[in-house]
Write a structure and sequence with these properties.
The chain is built from 13 helices and three strands, in the order H-H-H-H-H-H-H-E-E-E-H-H-H-H-H-H. It has about 325 residues and is mainly α. Strands 1-2-3 form a three-stranded antiparallel sheet. A hairpin with a 4-residue loop joins strand 1 and strand 2. The protein is elongated and about 70 Å long.
Length: about 325
């Protein structure tokens, strides 16, 4: 029951003191644990639950949501490690009689992990492009749009000029099952597109292809395979040893937002994922809130890059 010193806010403060004084964590590690706990608490608030009534299925659903939105397994492990630490503290200090996270499993980290690029690595990838080549600026714009908007490659190849709203800084995207969503686009991505449009406007475009944003030399829209090959080849040129694909940039988008502190449900909506338990989340988030999440938490919109979070210990 949330009363007096046992209020949720006071429990969180006591937990932070415990991490600082008894566990001896550094300020950076404390900040990482705080941010990760805030993700869980915000998620529980959306579900109408508090920390006293949480059970294992609630935490499993939270973990599944992290996976659903494409968060890298290492980041998932770190977040869930913090969740287990918090509920162990609640049990040890008598706030709960049980630890609902005792059987909560983390993702298995095998040899072949889905890769993710940091914002700095995305910059290296873009900077390695030879802009003297005809396709150089086009490829740079492709990479930036994938990273800034978190699009699927199929959504990118079908992106239309008529679906870019420059003044509002949105793009209209048609995802799986032709489901439509609006995604904020960063000023940097819009600048890269403007530079590409200079070359595009000089092209002879095939009839029926005039509205597609990204075109090949023959004036036809690109295919998914062409973009996959381009990104893999560019990673080699950039000296990035990771095995990456267009989907890597989508994962990187989600991870960058999560690490920046964005709400899980906002990320889920931006990616165009169906909710694991219900699709009602899309009716509870207005577009102004979603846009604010992107503006505040994506590195392409922040005045300074977010500090790197430590992996953290159990």
């Amino acid at each position: 029951m949330e009363t007096g010193k046992n209020s949720q806010a006071n429990i969180v403060k006591s937990y932070q003191r415990y991490l600082k004084l008894q566990r001896g964590f550094s300020p950076n590690t404390l900040d990482a644990y705080r941010r990760d706990l805030e993700k869980l608490l915000h998620y529980l608030k959306q579900e109408g639950k508090d920390v006293w009534e949480v059970q294992l299925p609630d935490l499993q659903h939270f973990a599944a949501t992290l996976h659903e939105i494409g968060i890298h397994p290492r980041s998932q492990c770190r977040i869930l490690s913090g969740v287990r630490s918090f509920f162990r503290f609640m049990e040890l200090d008598g706030y709960r009689e049980d630890d609902p996270s005792e059987l909560l499993e983390s993702p298995v980290l095998g040899e072949h992990l889905p890769e993710v690029l940091s914002p700095a690595e995305v910059d290296v990838l873009e900077d390695s492009i030879d802009l003297s080549k005809w396709e150089g600026q086009r490829n740079r714009a492709i990479i930036e749009v994938l990273f800034s908007c978190g699009l699927r490659v199929s959504e990118l190849v079908n992106l239309k000029l008529s679906n870019i709203y420059v003044d509002e800084q949105y793009v209209r995207v048609f995802g799986k099952g032709s489901k439509e969503r609006l995604v904020p686009i960063s000023p940097k991505a819009l600048r890269e597109l403007d530079k590409w449009f200079i070359n595009r406007n000089l092209m002879k475009i095939k009839p029926g292809e005039e509205d597609y944003v990204f075109l090949n030399r023959r004036g036809a829209h690109l295919t998914r395979t062409m973009i996959l090959i381009m990104i893999k080849e560019q990673a080699v040129v950039a000296g990035i040893p990771k095995t990456i694909s267009p989907h890597t940039l989508r994962h990187s988008f989600a991870t960058a937002l999560l690490e920046g502190g964005a709400d899980l449900r906002a990320i889920q909506a931006m990616l165009g994922h169906e909710s694991i338990g219900t699709t009602e989340i899309y009716t509870h988030i207005d577009m102004s809130t979603l846009r604010q999440e992107i503006l505040e938490h994506h590195p392409r919109n922040m005045k300074r890059p977010p500090s790197d979070f430590p992996e953290g210990e159990e």
